[in-house]
Amino acid sequence: MELAQIFHRAGKRQSQPRRHNLREADPASPLSKWDYGKATEADFYYNITASAFSNPRHRLAQLTVFCPKVFENLRSIFGISEESYLQSILASGPFVSFQSNSKGAARVGGVFFFTRDGAYMIKTIKQEEAQTLLRILPKYHRHLKRYGRSSLLTRFCGMYQVNIEQEEDPLESFDDASLAPTKKVQTFVVMNAVFPAEASSFISERFDLKGSTVGREVSEEELRSKGSNAVLKDLDLAREVELIRSNGGKHYGLTIGASAKAALLSQLREDVKFLVDCQVMDYSLLVGIVLVDYQQKRAFREAVSTMQKQDRILEQIQAGNDQKRDSAAISAAILPFRLMAAPPIYMARKVWGLGRLMVDSIFTSPLPYYGSGSCVVNGGKLSVFHGERRGERAIYYMGLIDFLQPWTKRKVVERYLKGMIGYDTKAISSVTPEEYATRFMSYLDDNVT
């Protein structure tokens, strides 16, 4: 992965007293308005993987670090040390790629990665989004400084641009007298993830909620192909809530309890007020749901399966099967002795209790679970809730994402054209930031219980 190699090469300069490096910012000095417009650059060569029939080659790359002092200050607000940040970003090895669940992101060519330790998400952004982030950065910094412990806004930890020299293929450019290299430019942000890279192993449902209704439902094709990884939308949740309500059901929507709902909506109002002030729209609340009892049952089934395997091994030894005696004895020797010796019913109860404790500990921790640890970036005290989902115990992961779309003339025209062909202009995504915010909050008030 070129991006990972570029960062790794850039990281080797950290100990050198150069002006251009990833850690140029001095956190001790106060921020000024000039810090919000600064950018530092580093030029260097990195290796291109060569085949057995060609000589090793190098490619020129330029890394631009936007507003380094501001983002370092933000990382401090998020509780991130520079050492841990650089370790995660600059660690050797490729980033972990994954396919976005968002069709919208796919349409605009968005590419997503996790750092190798799962601590950060790296996302490429369009030029318009990059300009928006730089424009709102002073207000974003002030808002996170005030509400950092509770805000649900994405934690932007850095913004970078990579300019890579691209050589043309000599065979394709045979008639071209000049083989001047072209440039490939990518801008990307480093941020926290609402839930970690291994979410597919334990998250049962995902929702992307905007408050709009036009085209806001998951397709049958996505449900078939992705299963629990499919992203449900506004209409999917609203129809479910209406169906359960109409039949007198008590458990519907995203159930987190009255006090938690009040705290959530109160903070979202502050976050949305900030987004209105920045004149952006098209954002959404991303929700991931873990059904705790289901995870416990799965852990219990796996434990019972392990015990059954152990019983078969013991039976092989006791039967004196000469052909299987050696391998069975070796297998049994590596299993915990107390587990083998305990009565099955007693051990089943112990395993169930241990499984319940383990799952509760994992899914009620203040941060998403990734492998054997937690994500480094704290999404805020309101990013994880205990609640219920259709009567079952559940853990909710939440975050306010994708708020870099400005309200532009293009969006005005889009709204007008959709109205001309018959869409309800109050139900589509392209509405003014003020309308968008009001509708967004109203939808969540109706569907979070």
Automatic annotation (TrEMBL):
Keywords from the named record: ATP-binding, Kinase, Nucleotide-binding, Transferase
A Pfam family assignment: PIP5K
GO BP, sorted A to Z: phosphatidylinositol phosphate biosynthetic process
Bias kind Basic residues: ranges: 9-21
Entry's Gene Ontology cellular component terms: plasma membrane
Keyword Kinase recorded: yes
InterPro entries registered for this protein in UniProt: PInositol-4-P-4/5-kinase_core, PInositol-4/5-P-5/4-kinase
GO molecular function: 1-phosphatidylinositol-4-phosphate 5-kinase activity; ATP binding
Residues covered by region (Disordered): 1-28
Residue span, PIPK domain: 1-448
Full protein name: Phosphatidylinositol-4-phosphate 5-kinase
